[in-house]
Amino acid sequence: MQIADWVKRCGALLAWCAMAGQGVAAPAPEPVRVALIEGLSGSFANAGEAVSRNLLWAVERVNQRGGVKLPDGLHPLELVRFDSKGSNEEALSLLRAAIDQKIGFVMQGNSSATAAVLIDALNKQNQREPSRRAIFLNYSAVDPALTNEKCSFWHFRFDAHADMRLQALTDVLAADARVKKVYLIGQDYSFGQSVLRQARTMLAAKRPDIEIVGDELHPLGRIKDFLPYAAKIKASGAQAVLTGNWGNDLTLLIRAGREAGLDARFYTFYGNALGAPAAIGEAGVDRVLAVAEWHPNLGGAASDKFYAGFRERFPNPQDDYVHMRMQAMVEMLASAIEKAGSADPLAVARALEGLKLDPRHLGGFHHGTMRAADHQFEQPLVVSVMQRVGSPGVRFDNEGSGYGFKTVLQLTESQTEMPHRCAMERP
Length: 427
Description:
Blueprint: H1 3-21, E1 32-38, H2 45-64, E2 68-70, E3 73-75, E4 77-83, H3 88-100, E5 105-108, H4 112-128, E6 135-138, E7 155-157, H5 162-174, E8 181-187, H6 190-206, E9 211-218, H7 227-236, E10 240-243, H8 248-259, E11 265-268, H9 276-280, E12 288-292, H10 301-313, H11 324-340, H12 345-352, E13 369-370, E14 377-378, E15 381-388, E16 403-411, H13 413-416
Parallel strand pairs: 1-4, 1-5, 5-6, 6-7, 8-9, 8-10, 10-11, 11-12
Antiparallel strand pairs: 2-3, 12-15, 13-14, 15-16
Helix pairs in contact: 2-11, 3-4, 5-6, 7-8, 11-12
């Protein structure tokens, strides 16, 4: 050994000893970073912030038990927010920024059009630069094509797709003998178009006597006054309105219905929050229905404890929109990283395929499986109807509105499963 090398090694050893003697802490473990690319400002900022709260709480719960376990120890999860402002172009730019920051896990959901753009970009990115891959975890983009014709190995959907939600909603609608006329209205993009198209097909099969008296698409996020639409719905004589609208497009539609004196039931995907219950008020009792994977009045000690934890973390009543699927998504990501023994996106993607939700992490009251064939998460669904808080089956209200939701139909994981048309190419 050269004298210079010997001196260098001795110096390094002495420096280490000095640090140890002074009680210098070892470097903190590198976090596993997760990018949230979502519209956090603009027309749908309320929906984006609701997502952010849910994901933050899910990440915090994983970190409270130490983080994710890898061969070199425990690593915390870190949520990194990127505001796409509701723009597909901005979302693409932010995806590149996240990859440049070596973030291997990207989450988005509040637009199927944006999701499709991100999936296409990731397919090309992961093929072009295998050393800088990322996977896409989708919590709300429910266009069925995303796990059918456009399915991708790099995309995993944790929400029930639109056809799964519609199947449950139309089961309840078809069972209501009072409904003879239905008005279909939705946002004019891939998801909204799919909802209206499939609603026609399902209603024709389940209740061929029902007349579709309106089939209307409107610009996404650009309508400020829905009164003209509400007036048309009222004039049509419809006893039911079926819509996939979300965010302000749903809230404003429901408010306009109330102002127009519309006497019809709203069959919705998202009518149980983001201001909708307060917007319609007493007129919504027994009239506004929603479909989701869970709701606070589902009941059971474990469910109640879970909900109480969220309310404690976010005490503002207006922040009271809990997405069970987002909690499940983060828990499944943590489990897949631990199963893979790595935060490498390819290894984690393979670990996610066929993975079941660990019941220990959500109190054992929610279940789900990531179907390997198309990367569609299979989980229970519940249709519920708006009622006054304190009425039978409604112990909790939504967003401090005084109104909550009561279970009408509950479907198991196996009952929500639908065939797929995915022919996936794997790396």
